[in-house]
Design goal:
heterodimer; A: alpha+beta; tRNA-splicing ligase RtcB; 8-stranded mixed sheet; 7-stranded mixed sheet; B: Archease, Possible Chaperone, Chain: A, domain 1; 6-stranded antiparallel sheet; 2 helices; 9 strands; about 40% strand
Chain lengths: ~475, ~140
């Protein structure tokens, strides 16, 4: 790349840095091997990381994970922490429209041999239990406004109280499935309206339900703690806060356009609009964002129970008899106040993770008790034809990246580009030939989401493994997929 | 795909890694809003499968033209995604400096008959700037899909 508009230097075997120049407050730091670096540079994600480095109160660096790709405002695969004591800001564009988009992993005692012969039946059951596709709704009864407000405060706990799941699920969920500070009064009527019919629905696009086999175990001790072993069947749920979260983000992007002018903040892109932490605009957004995060956790908690019914319907018995137990639920689109060491000083920072996953180490108070000796499970969904990963957080992640790592394979191709590439092919048949049974609602989703549209997930997690940020625990390979 | 049915106005889609964009041009701001609205519904839906049998009023406000444009498109998205109204046509009826009023023609969404082309989550402000000269307005809008 001869025409780079910036200086890029290698500062570690898998770490690259763009020094802070001009209006940048901090450097950009990219985790990648040379091939992934090339794809990150090709689609302008680097310029977006540079733009984030301009923002007030950003601390240490604007980070890009190896799966980083072009977003709007912030890149997807970006991590940035802002210090409230140094004019730091919160920016809805640094979290994304799908607030608390995340992944839930459920282990079972079922083996691949038991599940394969009945995979079509299981996929059909999952498909009928969990509504998916554009505007999907009515998985459970439509909620009244009062009940939705309660759900926004209680998160996954609301679902458990209403018969969707067990308290142990909450123990194994980031933040116990409920962020503090959620205030339904910060929500618009539109958001409330969109939220009412969609609890327990998957939505569309890259969201999925996936039945996987544990193909490989890399770390026996961590795998044992997580209840995962080779040959076993597990279930992944990937979705977020649906139209409710999108509406919250849209509402507050508008608020932040005004706030950016009011507080005289100069940002290079309107999508980076933000407000100083502690301002009324920031407080209101964070209160609404927490509602959407909690909605997403209630949603995945409800889906877990609907999916359990599908497993029970096919294999008999109940959750306990099937060994159907949650491993973890972690989000990859969120902002949170967290304590971190900054130059030897303990500080509370507002950490934005947009397409990045929290990866806390062993011994951390927020690492769930059953896993405290090994570290927090990290769930990395891959494309539907290759693999997904179960990883574990490390102390090094705390020291370098605010306890954060990658979130998935990361897109390589535009959706239309993928559709063109898939023209004349049957993606469904190609996947079937690889032993993967797929059921899909949308007409173009399979082509848009085909494996070639994504970066190599093995390479992405290997970068973070070798950089010491997250360690590989297990590789999960799909055998059945439901997509919106 | 390029459309130029209204006099001096048109739109075409462009691509980004994770998102979809719409490039729109028109002689003036009201025409630009109308064309952007029309381009947006054609991006989301095969409008040929939708009968323009019912009318639905749309109103949006915004301090600057760009904010007004996002608010306008968000109203159209809300009608479709949240209220289940599938639009086939979009018109602007009146426009002020900070508000726009218009109308959608369409019918209630029916997933058996109506073909969804693209699942748009939201309208973004990404690099959004309306370029204006004496006889032409143009803009590029990125959608989160």
């Amino acid at each position: 790349m001869a025409e780079r508009g910036y200086e890029l230097k290698q500062v570690g075997p898998l770490v690259w840095e763009i020094p802070a120049t001009g209006r940048m407050n901090v450097p950009v730091r990219i985790y990648a091997d040379s091939q992934l670096l090339e794809s990150i540079e090709r689609d302008n994600a680097v310029q977006q990381s540079i733009n984030v480095a301009y923002m007030p109160g950003i601390v240490r660096a604007s980070f890009a994970m190896p799966d980083a790709h072009w977003g709007y405002g912030f890149p997807i695969g970006g991590v940035a922490a802002f210090d409230p004591g140094q004019d730091g800001v919160v920016s809805p564009g640094g979290i994304g429209f799908d607030i608390n988009c995340g992944v839930r992993l459920i282990r079972t005692d079922l083996t691949e041999q038991e599940v394969r012969p009945r995979i079509q039946e299981l996929v059909n059951q999952l498909y009928s239990q969990v509504p998916c596709g554009v505007g999907s709704s009515k998985a459970i009864r439509r909620l009244g406004e009062k009940e939705l407000r309660q759900l926004c405060v209680e998160g996954a706990g609301w679902a458990v109280e209403n018969g969707f799941g067990v308290p142990d699920d909450l123990e194994r969920t980031e933040a116990h499935g409920a962020l503090q500070g959620a205030d339904p009064d910060a929500l618009s009527q539109k958001a409330l309206k969109r939220g009412q019919p969609q609890v327990g629905t998957l939505g569309s696009g890259n969201h999925f339900l996936e039945v996987d086999r544990v193909a490989e175990v890399f770390d026996e001790a961590a795998a044992e703690a997580f209840g995962v072993a080779r040959g076993q069947v597990v279930l992944q749920v990937h979705c977020g806060s649906r139209g409710f979260g999108h509406q919250v983000c849209s509402d507050y992007l508008k608020t932040m356009q005004n706030a950016t002018r009011k507080y005289g903040i100069d940002v290079p892109d309107r999508q980076l609009a933000c407000a100083p932490l502690g301002s009324p605009e920031a407080d209101r957004y964070l209160a609404a964002m927490a509602c959407a995060a909690n909605y997403a956790w209630a949603n995945r908690q409800t889906i877990l129970t609907l999916a359990a019914r599908a497993f029970e319907g096919v294999f008999g018995g109940d959750r306990d008899a099937l060994g159907f137990r949650q491993v973890y639920d972690v989000c990859h689109n969120i902002a949170k106040f967290e304590e971190h060491d900054v130059d030897g000083e303990r500080r509370t920072l507002c950490v934005h993770r947009k397409g990045a996953t929290r990866a806390f180490p062993p011994g951390h108070a927020e690492t769930p008790t059953p896993y405290r000796h090994v570290g927090q499970p990290v769930l990395i969904p891959g494309d539907m034809g290759t693999a997904s990963y179960l990883l574990v957080g490390t102390e090094r992640a705390m020291q370098e990246t605010w306890g954060s790592t990658c979130h998935g394979a990361g897109r390589l191709m535009s959706r239309k580009g993928a559709i063109r590439k898939a023209s004349g092919r049957s993606i469904k048949r190609e996947l079937a030939e690889r032993g993967i049974t797929v059921r899909c609602e949308g007409r173009t989703t399979l082509a848009e989401e085909m494996p070639e549209a994504y970066k190599n997930v093995d390479a992405v997690v290997t970068v973070m493994h070798e950089a010491g940020i997250t360690r590989k625990v297990a590789r999960l390979e799909p055998i059945g997929v439901v997509k919106g | 795909m390029e459309h130029a049915e209204r006099e001096g106005a048109g739109h075409r889609t462009f691509e980004h890694t994770a998102d979809v964009g719409l490039e729109v041009w028109a002689p003036g701001l009201p025409e630009l809003f109308e064309e952007a609205g029309q381009g947006f519904v054609e991006l989301m839906l095969d409008t040929g499968s939708v009968a323009p049998a019912q009318r639905r009023a749309v109103r949006a406000e915004g301090q600057e033209p760009e904010e007004l444009l996002v608010a306008w498109l968000e109203e159209i998205l809300f009608a479709f995604d949240a209220e289940g109204f599938a639009p086939a046509g979009v018109s602007v009826l009146s426009m002020g400096a900070q508000s726009v009023e218009g109308e959608l023609k369409g019918e209630p969404f029916d997933r058996r008959r109506h073909r969804v082309l693209c699942n748009v989550k939201a309208v973004t402000y990404h690099d959004l700037a309306i370029k204006r000269t004496d006889d032409r307005c143009e803009v590029r809008i990125v959608f989160d899909v």
